[in-house]
Design brief:
By secondary structure, this protein is α/β, with parallel strands linked by helices. 25% of the residues lie in helices and 28% in strands. It has helices at 3-6, 19-29, 54-67, 78-94, 101-117, 162-167, 177-186, 208-216, and strands spanning 11-14, 36-41, 72-76, 124-126, 132-135, 141-144, 168-169, 221-225, 231-235, 256-262, 267-272, 280-291, 300-304, 312-320, 323-333, 340-344, 350-357. β10 (256-262) and β11 form a beta hairpin. α4 runs antiparallel to α5 (101-117). The longest helix is centred in the N-terminal third of the chain and has 17 residues, at 78-94.
């Protein structure tokens, strides 16, 4: 965190109750600053039906804000989340695609709905993301990767708008996760040993398939072996499966990999074996590419299609202003339409943006 970047700036901290955002507050406190903190409240529509950890999160956030003499305000973004992020997710899965709610949550809620409600009163919005920013010679702000390859979250931020990036501040982005834990323990933070949240942003302990079933129900159909055309079972709905999936299939004679969906016929195609060739792709199309900072002329890149530590080298063949074909140097497992392909420079330092995979 650059002192010049925050000097004389009005700063809001998004405090979730987790250890990362709590250490963000500490980072300001050690500079003698006491920024306003905000807890974004997202809950199920009928809370008694769901097992949600939001009450504990708020207790933790309250304790941390109090410890460092910061005000804490609860901002209710429940309706925006379920209207915007849930709609995006259900529209995509209904179409047979593989969405990423966490990516859209950052764009629509953390840096979107919050800004509309309260963030517009602040110059900068600080979060506990593992990401960094840098300013180039022309004064443009770029999203750059964290030194912790496992925790780096630039892929989750790759759809935010340019104005959102200009307001974003990531005070712990230069740390490794272990260093953040050590700081939390040294500071005796109430959540120092708390486990990282798993699963979809804001869903807490809600199972993703239950989340989908609530809105789309079930729609049984045939499961067919791609190579032989043999029927091997029945699925409960294409939306419960994603390309590349192997676990949780429940069919005998496995292992089976999901390799294709026929939405029109409601057929799930699978391939047999531990590493079937049909589970891999080397070339695939991307559309609606969103540039984070500015459009650049780029051919040789690295990319990710899911939240993993690995970056894959590739060349881009541009087919339009916001569309291209990725030619990966290596075969990639589980490329699924609807996933975001996140593009980085050759050294996977700057995150350039992301677009949706189409085939």
């Amino acid at each position: 965190m650059n002192i010049a970047e925050i000097e004389n700036k009005k700063i809001a901290v998004l405090l979730s109750g987790g250890v990362d955002s709590s250490v963000v507050v500490y980072e300001f406190a050690k500079l003698g600053l006491h920024p306003d903190c905000f807890y974004i409240k997202i809950g199920p529509e009928e809370e008694e039906e769901w097992d949600c950890s939001s009450e504990e999160d708020l207790e933790m956030a309250t304790a941390v804000a109090h410890k460092y003499g910061c005000k804490l305000e609860v901002i209710d973004c429940h309706r925006e989340y379920w209207d915007q992020v849930t709609k995006y997710t259900m529209d995509k899965v209904r179409a047979g695609l593989t969405p990423n709610p966490d990516v859209m949550c950052n764009r629509l809620i953390k840096f979107g709905a919050f800004d509309e409600k309260r963030g517009h009163d602040y110059d900068l919005i600080a979060t506990g993301h593992y990401a960094q920013t840098e300013i180039d010679a022309e004064g443009r702000k770029w999203l750059v990767t964290s030194p912790d390859p496992v925790k780096d979250q630039t892929d989750f931020l790759a759809q935010i708008a340019d104005w959102q990036l200009r307001k974003a501040l990531f005070p712990i982005g230069h740390y490794m996760k272990d260093e953040v834990r050590i700081i939390a323990e040294q500071e005796h933070l109430v959540n120092a040993k708390r486990k990282d949240s798993q699963g979809i942003c804001f869903l807490g302990k809600i199972n993703y398939n239950d989340y989908i079933r609530r809105y789309l129900g079930e729609q049984p159909g045939d499961v067919i072996e791609l190579e032989t055309g043999k029927r091997i079972g029945e699925h409960k709905g294409l939306w419960f499966h994603t390309i590349g999936q192997r676990k949780g299939m429940g069919f005998g004679g496995g292992p089976w990999f999901v390799v294709k969906k026929d939405v029109a016929q409601n057929i799930l195609y699978v391939s047999h074996g531990y590493d079937p060739e049909t589970a891999y792709k080397q070339d695939f199309a991307v559309h609606d590419f969103h540039w984070l900072t500015t459009q650049v002329s780029v051919v040789d890149v690295t990319f990710k299609i899911r939240h993993t530590p690995e970056y894959h080298p590739a060349t881009l063949e541009w087919t339009g202003e916001h569309a291209f074909t990725v030619h990966s140097k290596e075969k990639i497992h589980g490329v699924a339409p609807g996933q975001f392909c996140v593009i980085y420079d050759e050294n996977h330092h700057r995150c350039l943006g992301s677009g949706e995979i189409t085939v």
